[in-house]
Design a protein that fits this description.
By secondary structure, the chain is of the alpha/beta class. The chain has one domain: 3-Layer(aba) Sandwich (Rossmann fold), CATH 3.40.50.720. Helices cover about 45% and strands about 15% of the residues. The protein has eight helices and seven strands, in the order αββαβαβαβαβαβαα. The strands form two sheets. It has a five-stranded parallel sheet with strand order 5-4-3-6-7, with helices on both faces. A two-stranded antiparallel ribbon has the order 1-2. A hairpin with a 7-residue loop joins β1 and β2. The radius of gyration is 18 Å and the shape is globular.
Amino acid sequence: MTLFASVESSPVSLPHAPSKSLAQYVSKPSKYSLTHAAPSTTVTGTSSGLGKSLAEVVLHKGDIVVATLRKPSVLAPLTKQYPPTQLLLLPLDVTCPSDITAAFTRTQEVFGRLDVVFNNAGCTMTGEVESTADADARALFEVNFWGMVGVSRAAVKFFREVNPPGKGGILLQNSSMMSITGGAGIAFYSAR
């Protein structure tokens, strides 16, 4: 099932809003664009799930997407649907600082600006605290905490140094309710 079919036909309930399809919410013109051109959005972790769905919705709206993921070939079918002036696929492992730098540098070279960064890349791990290897727990933090920090730092630097003075940008972080409530078997995931 594609997102477009579910977006067009499935109603969603948003807090404090009347029930509408998701497409009605995202099809509104953005007041946050830095120019009169379509807004430019970078989304990390677009290989599946929320990141992929958000990238598809933003593209469907007509805006620019810089889709970042460890294996860009996963989204190759989207390159047949959208021109390179609207979709840029970039390799990005958020645990690798040089990948982060390269992604933001390439975004600047291609689009010259960046309106929104959605920090979505993440992973999960389940298991008992006492039986989880330190290396596994540290790897989770490298992605879910330090990866987010690295992308956030690069985004804020881009907003301040590349975008026109006074325009800034929007930085969004994806997290989990487990960060607030915790739960059995997910202590390290919840601690992030």
